[in-house]
Predict the 3D structure of the following.
Amino acid sequence: MANTRCAFRVLGVALAAVLIGEGCGKVSGRSVSLLGSTSIQPFAEVLAEQYTKKNPGHFVEVQGGGSTAGLQAVDNGLADIGMCSRELTAEETRQFTRILVARDGLAIVVNADNRVTKLSIEKIRALFAGRLTNWREVGGQDGPVRPITREEGSGTRESFVRLVMGKERISRRALTQESNGAVKELVKGDPAAIGYMSLGLVDNEIGAVAVEGAPPTTDNVLAGRYTLVRPLLFVTKGAASPAAQSFVDFVLSPAGQRLLEKEGLVRAR
């Protein structure tokens, strides 16, 4: 069954990439296709909307699928820009051009009714590894802990593993979800849940805990007080096309960076 789900996911990503390619062919040299991280996707959609307003006749298509899928799409020529919410490996750095567009805090989120408001990295690691299984063990009410994680290939998951888990594995009992939105919905509806997601997508429907005493805010990310931070990247293979470079220039411009900051991210520059 797991292999079947994986196969369907790969086919879905491939189909999305093909549709992007077909759509771009219809709009000639003014089209740009982005594919990849579901963490970056909603921010890229906001940027794309503003960019096309400022540049009539230009077309920007944004699709999710995960960071690894984004890199594969760029490598195979199915997308102009890959969206990646983790740091590139040494091999990927040699293969692709890395463009830092913003930084993002990785928020540890709980149900709004959960009275736990702060955790150490060691306790977060223990909760996700399954070594701590009751909220009472970390100052909460008596009740089970239900970890929510992201799927393999997710940049958010890879960043979480690097920043929090280290060499320890996430428990097999953790529920796996395939987007920030899905994680948020589960946490919002389940008092036992704990998950992780982009700080820029956190709102008052869920709680975000302080880590090592520092609340997850953009000010704390900028000041270095909040340490669960990851890069948000655009990735191209070699030099970007003129249309793609025009969009990248807008994203890195003061206007584009202010827009990302307004959406809860930390500017790249």
In short: The chain is about 40% helix and 25% strand. Residues 1-28 have pLDDT under 50 and may be disordered. The first strand starts at residue 31 and ends at 36.
